What we know:
Keywords: Nucleus. InterPro entries: Fun_TF. The longest helix has 27 residues, at about 410-435. The chain has helices at about 5-10, 15-25, 50-55, 60-70, 120-125, 140-155, 165-175, 180-195, 205-225, 235-255, 260-270, 275, 280-300, 330-355, 360-380, 390-395, 410-435, 445-455, 470-480, 485-500, 505-520, 530-540. It has 22 helices and no strands. Helix 10 packs antiparallel against helix 11. The chain has two domains: about 50-70 and about 110-300, no CATH class; about 300-540. The protein is mainly alpha-helical.
Amino acid sequence: MPQTQDQMYGYEANFTWLQDAAQAKLPLIAYRLPESSTPNIEDWMFLNTSVKDVESSATPGILLQEFVADQASVSSSPASHSVVMPARTRGFEFRSHHPAPPSSVMSMSDDHASWNLDTLARQMHSPDPVCRSLSDTPIRYSQKYLLDYFRRSIGPQCHLAHNDNPYVRLILPIALSAPSGPLMQALLCASANQLRLLSDRRFEKEAWMYRAKTLGLVRSELDNFMTGLSRDTTSFEQLLASVVMLCFVEISNDAADTWMVHSACAQVLLSSDHRYSARSAELDDLCDFVHLYFAAHDALARTSWIDPRKQDWRLPVSDDHNHINGLTGCSKELLNLIMATTNLANAISDAERHPREGSNRNAEHAFYDTGQRDGIERRLHQIEQWLPSKYLSQSESCPSPTSSLSPFSEPNRLHRLEIIAEVKRLAALIYFYARIDRATPEHPQIIRLTASMLNLLRKVPVSANALLWPLYIVGTLGVQSCQDEHRALVLERLEALEKRRQLRNVKDVRQVVVDVWKQRDLQTLSSRELCWSDIAICHGKRISLA
């Protein structure tokens, strides 16, 4: 039977948000995938609004014109790095991870003209800040509020180097260039869903609605792309970026393995002919970001469960292979070594389950595995990770959008990024010895690495999910049962990470770590200690650890 387009890309899967909507007793008609990707305005009723709220809405094009006109005075203005908000919300500042929003988002003044894109343009770091044409489609104020929340709160928390943040520099401009496209709906969904997770219920229904619209538009774009009706670069960029944001929302919301559906779709898109037939600097930059995003998720997630398949993603050697990336908190080379560790462990397990005939073949296979093992271990000890020059050159000239709200300067932020990269290298070594050599927390190497790693963790505030995987590794494979101080530190960091954004995958990681500790405590009288395979069998879940 021939595959449909949805089946080819994996989007025939049932997403858990439908079940969540049913459990919450929300009217399913509002969250069902729309038959039309552009529902009529007559289908919706706007409550708590006035005529001005509907009629007076600014457009990206108008905002852009205001931005260009304002740039001459930006550098001389003492408030050049502040975001100008509508009169009703001036004085409202994002001073924490959960900002107190305006008293009424849907009941606003018509002072839309003061909302501009100055900080966004500075983030794009281009001689010409207008890197792409912006659409003239009107954007309602509630949507602009959600977009600004994404730019000022969500984006900076997802990337450790704020001066080169792809969520702001790439994703947001693509969305603004097509406000009716799937990416805009995905960004609105991400912001509304994040506010919902932080107990802000004003956008709860909108989160489900935007998610349904995103999925419907992505499916429509996929059909058009595969049938050749729409193969322009703009549609391809919309598809790629939308798949990333759908994965982003799935991980934030329920941490189920449905994020792997989006990963498979992105892999098909990146290997399509259009990826190479319409080359441009912007498209290459976006593809590199998408590739690294899913490669990191795949590499780290496979360290928590038994999967005999080889890694789906590869990071080819490039000039920036040893550069620390703000998205992952480490270098591409370290991610490749983590993948190599997993692949070697799977090969060893497969050889043990299915021994080859003849003693010579088994000896040759063991010798080959030993050589690979020693090579990976040596590279993990010798790897050098350094900050790219673009991070260093921009740290003084281009302050981050949250620099005025944070007690940490950009140089200190970059120093923390270096510490996080070293923490992840130590975590990779713990994983290597636990997975390949079956070392337990009582092994001398594990004890030494755990102590070094926890000492570094004390120096780094919980600022991003880049610390989630190291905390998972040291919590399950490094901390000994008798080390209550170490357990307290790991648990404190996981709880702080959970409180920051209330992400479901962080909750699941904390629960797995606590369950492993309980199981170890119950087995203290046993002569056999838990190893990685025991943990993977009993507690392995396909959750995202990136």
